[in-house]
Amino acid sequence: MFTGIVEELGKVRDCRRDGDGFALSIDCSTVLEGTILGDSIAVNGVCLTVTQLDSQGFVTGLAPETRKRTNLDSLVKGSKVNLERSVTPSTRMGGHFVQGHVDATGTIRTFRHDEDALWVTISAPAELMRYIVTKGYITLDGTSLTVVDVGPDWFSVTLVAYTQAHIVMPGKSVGEQINIEVDVLGKYVERLLQHGIAGVGTAAAASPITPDFLKENGYD
Prior knowledge:
The protein is 18% helix and 38% strand. It is built from 6 helices and 13 strands. Its EC number is 2.5.1.9.
């Protein structure tokens, strides 16, 4: 579990084939403190297991499924990545509950400067948009952010100056992929509603969950 508050920008040392997967080596310093083999570190929002440690950084493995579902497959030597250690009982929850389980990748659609703030619009897969709501949480490349606006297949966030200086997103280009993890609470609510509605019949349970549908089935 993570908070989405990036602790450090790491730099990819190399990404080499290792059996059926790849070994990703990252140079860093802050996240090495207190880290031992087997610990979890979020790399661009992807929960990965530390398999090797040295004085300059750590090594983790990338399975084929991870490379397929995230933007980590595009990393090359010198790429910067957002890093965060997993939470402890004494960790401040400055962001929100982040699992490090990327749902899909989106595409950066636009950047727009507004004085010292930076607005970013992201195109997202249609199946994720039902979980993305105005003023709700979203995790982008491991960064906990608040959704500002939502469209049919896009949403926007805004970055204050401090955040811009401490995450990788401002260094990306329009058209680049970004890892998206939606707020897991939305998934739980959807699942619970589907479970409850299943009692009204198979056809109803398979119907889209809309405000009108909920009213029709007694969920006011």
